[in-house]
Write a structure and sequence with these properties.
By secondary structure, the protein is α/β, with parallel strands linked by helices. The longest helix is centred in the middle third of the chain and has 24 residues. Helix 2 links the parallel strand 2 and strand 3. Helix 5 packs antiparallel against helix 6, helix 5 packs across helix 8 and helix 13 packs across helix 14. GO terms for molecular function: transferase activity. Pfam families: Glyco_trans_1_4 (PF13692). Keywords: Transferase.
């Protein structure tokens, strides 16, 4: 039986309610945020997006409750940070069985069925589902009166299909293909219960809007920091930062090591810096390649020094879905980006204006050399991409406007 924990937290949201922030009928608007993973620390793309949104919702004055169905309990330190924003946190265990493979729902969803039983409150205005994985919460009787909103991190059917293309193991390919087909069916079921969608990818938003014009959908860019770093453009360090346990990231790194890295070894001061969380998985997949001038940081605690040591960032992904937040984060951290089309899709960034795009090894190599040989061009590209993100990635304004449009007479008072 899964362990269910409830944390009552005297947080920023509690103080806001005590301060009398208005709500029609009394009290501030109350939102339950449902996550498939504890959102803090924000050490990978999905967490960066979710954690930033929780902070924004709290800053806008809403009372936030958080329900998480994940594998691990958060540390006391991480919980302490979260309680600055969420009034209550509900935790339930994730349960996986081999027989889940036979279920009509994806295993990622079936393993989180305990969400149906969590004793959350009954008076939420909205339930914000952070991805398809937490779909079982909609069967929880306590949230029946709340309006559901789905944050679409990926088109999961496309995403799992891309994972099947990226992995080499036959068993993994079969699993990812099965999950892809199941997510196709789940998306149809989701439409029966949810008609409000927030897309992280502009590309996926446009496609959905054409296919489902009756739904209340919106492109909501990922939250970004107000602080942008300047590039140093010294040395010739090429950086990749991403989850090293993911097949599509591994595939991209291998493609780079096979086709691009050997051509750059003749460049003085060149190094390829790889950093990311391995989840304690082996890095033996790197061994077939020439690792001269390759530096690997396994699960680094802090990425600041890695970004600061870089000249440019590469995203050589061959398959994927949604927005690759690694590309956005690199730009924020002062690195111009050379990417494949997959690595920048859904961002709105344009080739040769904000980012350099190359899909063949020859194109990718030439793009890198162009920036390494011309620091002024690298700087102008970075400046243009940072300006684009500042202008178009205003998460707070878009989210506030979207929620306000759902209840146009609802009074909103920003507290921070």
């Amino acid at each position: 039986m899964a362990v269910i924990c409830v944390y009552q937290l005297f947080s920023r949201a509690s103080r806001q309610r005590a301060a009398g922030i208005p709500k029609t009928g009394g009290g501030p608007m109350k939102i339950l945020v449902a996550c498939s993973d504890f959102p803090y620390p924000a050490d990978h793309g999905g967490r960066v997006d979710t954690w930033g949104r929780i902070q924004v919702l709290a800053e806008l004055g809403y009372t936030i409750h958080l329900v998480v169905c994940g594998k691990q309990m958060p540390s006391e330190t991480d919980m302490k940070v979260v309680k600055g924003y969420a009034e209550k946190v509900f935790l339930c265990g994730r349960k996986s069985k081999i027989t889940d493979l036979l279920h009509a729902d994806p295993m990622q969803v079936q393993s989180r069925t305990e969400l149906r039983n969590v004793q959350v409150d009954k008076d939420y205005d909205y339930v914000l589902l952070e991805g398809d994985y937490v779909y079982p919460l909609l069967d929880n009787p306590n949230v029946g009166s709340a309006t559901p909103i789905l944050r679409v991190h990926n088109d999961e059917a496309v995403y799992f299909k891309s994972l099947a293309q990226s992995t080499r193991k036959a068993a993994h390919k079969l699993y990812y293909r099965m999950e892809s087909r199941k997510f196709e069916q789940l998306s149809k079921k989701m439409l029966e219960k949810v008609d409000k969608y927030l897309f992280i990818s502009s590309k996926e938003f446009e496609k959905f809007r054409r296919e489902h014009p009756a739904a209340t959908s919106q492109f909501l860019p990922p939250p970004v920091s107000k602080h942008f770093r300047k590039g140093s453009f010294t040395g010739k360090h090429v950086v990749f930062i991403g989850s090293l346990f993911m097949p599509n990231n591994r595939e991209g790194i291998e493609w780079y090591l096979k086709y691009i890295h050997p051509l750059l070894l003749k460049e003085q001061d060149y190094k390829f810096i790889i950093a990311g969380n391995t989840r304690k998985m082996s890095l033996s997949w790197l061994e077939p390649y020439n690792l001269m001038n390759v530096v690997v940081h396994d699960t680094p605690q802090n990425l600041d020094d890695i970004y600061q040591s870089g000249y440019l960032f590469v995203n050589p992904m061959q398959h994927g879905a949604g927005v690759k937040l690694k590309t956005i984060e690199a730009i924020q951290n002062g690195l111009p980006v050379v990417s494949t089309s997959v690595g920048c899709e859904g961002t709105g960034l344009k080739d040769n204006e904000h980012i350099m795009v190359g899909d063949s090894p020859e194109e990718f190599y030439v793009r890198i050399r162009t920036l390494l040989d011309n620091p002024e061009r690298a700087k102008s590209l970075l400046d243009a991409s940072q300006q684009f993100i500042r202008k178009h990635y205003n998460h707070k304004d878009v989210l506030s406007s979207y929620i306000g449009s759902l209840q146009p007479t609802y009074p909103i008072k920003q507290v921070l």
